[in-house]
Specification:
alpha+beta; 6 helices; NADH Oxidase; 199 residues; binds flavin mononucleotide; 25% strand; single chain
């Protein structure tokens, strides 16, 4: 009942309000499937049902991807602890920066930019797409590529645990995503990852 209400509130929030910053609910840091089961079920899915994630699921997913699990360290390692990856979330109504410290999605650009992600059969039906950006002024490109991979795998495992589907995608329109995010030449979009309910 409580979960259902939260879902309805969140859906209304996304649908009715114009895009604006979203304060996430606190992430649940316990439970889920046993690790070995999640590993066994990890896979790529490309066939999604058009459906938004409940507020709690959204928060948990982002925390798994790149949240803090200690004062200044995260659920993923990073080379020399440079934390050079940024995670953005693309919904149908805009793109948001995941501010893990504030547990908040900060609106970056309002509007539907999903065509920039390519593979519309995936992007247009997924609940959201995560966009992994590396900051080349913080760490080397090699380190950034590896470090982004840890988040991608965390998301795959979270999805396996939560009954969601996911697929990492390297075949998106790089210049378009770069421009939409208004990134600098010291930033690079390295991977996109769709998340949603499997049909
Ligand atoms: C770096 C990377 C890029 C990928 N790019 C795409 C992509 O552009 N489109 C796609 O449908 N799948 C993409 N995938 C998913 C792979 O095709 C998938 O992981 C592979 O077929 C193995 O399947 P599995 O993940 O179910 O084990 C990508 C995976 C990785 C790791």
């Amino acid at each position: 009942m409580k979960k259902g209400l939260l879902t309805i509130l969140f859906l209304s929030f996304i649908a009715c309000l114009s895009a604006q910053d979203i304060q996430l609910v606190p992430p649940t840091k316990t439970g889920g499937k046993p690790l070995m089961e999640a590993l066994n079920e990890r896979q790529s899915n490309r066939n999604f049902e058009k459906k938004d994630l409940p507020a709690q699921t959204l928060s948990d997913l982002l925390w798994a991807a790149y949240g803090f699990n200690r004062e200044d360290k995260r659920t993923v390692p990073s080379s020399q602890n440079k934390q050079e990856v940024d995670v953005y979330v693309m919904f149908s109504n805009g793109i948001y920066f995941y501010d893990a410290k504030a547990n908040k999605l900060v609106l970056k650009e309002a509007g539907d930019f999903r065509q920039a992600l390519g593979q519309p059969a995936i992007s247009d039906n997924a609940s959201l797409s995560l966009i992994y950006v590396i900051n080349l002024d913080k760490n080397s490109r090699d380190a950034g590529l590896m470090d982004a991979g840890f988040s991608v795998q965390n998301v795959y495992l979270y999805c396996a645990s939560a009954g969601l589907g996911s697929v990492a995608r390297g075949s998106f329109k790089r210049p378009d995503v770069h421009n939409v995010l208004k990134l600098t030449e010291k930033q690079e979009v390295v991977l996109v990852q769709a998340v949603g309910y499997v049909k």
